[in-house]
Design brief:
Largest sheet: 3 strands, antiparallel
Radius of gyration: 22 Å
Number of strands: 7
Number of helices: 6
Shape: flat
Structural class: alpha+beta
Helix content: 40-55%
Distance between the termini: 35 Å
Strand order of the largest sheet: 6-3-7
Strand content: 15-25%
Length: 222
């Protein structure tokens, strides 16, 4: 039995509620893109749970087919490698998101609260939101216990010194379409300039200059 990724199809519901038919190969390419974006972006990005769910569905389908192949079939090992590679993409993507939540938990939850107030789309999934809240509660309880041994220390000071992502760090990107008028942050208010990105162009640039483009899918991090 031969498992051909190009013959498999899946459906993703996009934000505009239109259905897009994708081959499995196209879906995995999308998963690779969101994984790299999340890996290299200094801040947590809007979740791509719909893509993750579709990829997990394809994994389950592929594993079912693998189970029907005899162990003597050499193609089984090749297909198993592909399944393992796809599973790594998903787990690594989720791991990067959890690491960012743990590192910037107070900042992340504050940003989420502000998005809720502005009636904007949440960046975290429900499960991530629940994890972040419990993790913050655990940190607060830990520091409270520590402060009990050092009553002279101000308890609230550490909360006022939030750890935030360094959005001025540099990233390497590739343009997925032509983008005009990208404001390049030169580090000073009077030291900015405009550049145009052509399709396929690659450059190193400060993340805060292209953060919105990454989230809109106009460029990808590499």
């Amino acid at each position: 039995m031969n498992i051909n990724l190009d013959e498999l199809e899946t459906t993703i519901d996009e934000i505009d509620d239109t259905n897009v038919q994708l081959t499995s190969a196209e879906l995995i390419e999308m998963m690779e893109e969101v994984w790299l974006n999340e890996k290299f972006a200094p801040e947590i990005l809007p979740n791509k749970q719909e893509i993750v769910d579709c990829v997990l569905g394809q994994l389950a389908f592929m594993e079912e087919n693998l189970a029907t192949l005899p162990c003597s079939d050499f193609k089984k090992g090749i297909h198993q490698l592909e399944v393992d590679r796809i599973r790594y993409l998903v787990t690594s993507y989720l791991r990067h998101r959890l690491e960012k939540i743990e590192t910037y938990v107070f900042h992340t939850l504050k940003q989420e609260e502000q998005r809720t107030e502005r009636d904007e789309e949440s960046y975290l999934t429900e499960a991530e939101q629940e994890f972040a809240v419990k993790y913050r509660q655990g940190l607060e309880q830990h520091f409270e216990n520590v402060m009990n041994f050092h009553p002279g220390l101000p308890f609230e000071d550490w909360k006022n010194q939030l750890i935030v992502p360094n959005t001025k760090s540099f990233v390497f990107l590739k343009a997925k379409s032509r983008v005009e008028g990208v404001v390049v942050d030169g580090g000073r208010d009077d030291d900015s300039k405009l550049v145009d990105l052509n399709l396929g162009s690659q450059l190193i640039i400060s993340y805060n200059s292209v953060a919105d483009l990454v989230k809109k899918g106009e460029v990808r991090l590499i």
